[in-house]
Design brief:
This protein is of the alpha/beta class. It is built from 11 helices and 23 strands. The protein binds 3,4-dihydroxybenzoic acid (DHB).
Length: 398
Amino acid sequence: MTTTPVRTRTRVGIVGAGPAGLMLAHLLARAGIDTVAVDVRRREEIETTHRAGILERDSVRLLVDTGVSDRVLREGHEHRGIDLRFGGESHRIDFEALVGASTWLYPQTDVFVDLADARERDGGDVRFGVTDVAVEGVTSGCPTVRFTDAEGRAQEVDCEIMVGADGSRGICRDLVPQDRRRRYYREYPFAWFGILTEAPRSSEELIYTGGDQGFALVSSRTETIQRMYFQCDPTEDVTAWSDDQVWDQMQSRVAGPDGFRLREGPIVNKTVLPFRSFVQEPMRHGRLVLAGDAAHTVPPTGAKGLNLALADVRVLGEVIEQALATHDLDLLDDYSERALARVWRTQHFSYWMTTLLHRLPDSSDFDVRRQRGELESVVSSEAGSRYLAEAYTGWPAG
Ligand code: DHB
């Protein structure tokens, strides 16, 4: 039996209600612009998917200054530096001294919860758990998103601008015809083995290790739950690893003459995180604009994915407001251009930090010694450290 779809109208349709989609909806609501955001995932599903945990200075400002929530300031942890560890020694990169900035440890799942709560508080229209999402008419005067809502009712939402914030596996990036888009890829021959462990913190700040002992990252979630990663093969089977084997790997990568050891505990989650760089250009087609992972993916080193998505929508919010006010949709091209400038700088940084710290399976002795030279260059001169500090804490918005 076919039922007549419920038809509604809004100004901006948003496909994807993760951090990018919800942040955009929040910014537009502040400008008096109605949105409807839809997501195929249920809210609980998004809340329990582990993602990265580091926010740039301006990401924190965006959450706090636009009234999403100030929970990040109460429950997050400000980090004024990181440790780069190689050759068994730690080298602190002092963000505060180098660039007068810091980052915040605050998991992406908490950012999502804050945004979803803020939408609920402000009466925003967000539909989680929808199915059969289809977008039509992005080059017509009135694009439409059709879907079946969580209660099984067919819905059609007409809008003036459609935003694809539906991630790297979403439908929106494919709505740009092949002859109107360019895609850039890079695959990496390694991955991260990520764990969550019930253990006390081993370090107040993050530790990134590289060099002879291989890559590891020591991060945190709470006083009692820690997040850590080490380099592995992309085909690694996490179920084949005992807790003891994982701890041996982690301990050997951080070991040194200073006797540093990680505090161990039961491992409650093990997953493999793939590495990929991807960009689709342009980020506008007709009345469709892409934001966040729908347009680009960065490898996880340096935790830029969420920060880049938030930087996209900060620009996009402004541009949509102007475009709707002036009825000049070509302003959306400015969004694509401005966002892509940051996307490519960030692609470079994520790639650079990845190659600085990881070992290629076929690396030669030359490669190994050269990489050590690079690590020494970064930590032994202020100029070397400053690029890392500036990019890691985030280039100023604008
Ligand atoms: C985390 C993840 C990252 O990719 C990173 O560079 C730093 C921290 C994290 O999950 O905490």
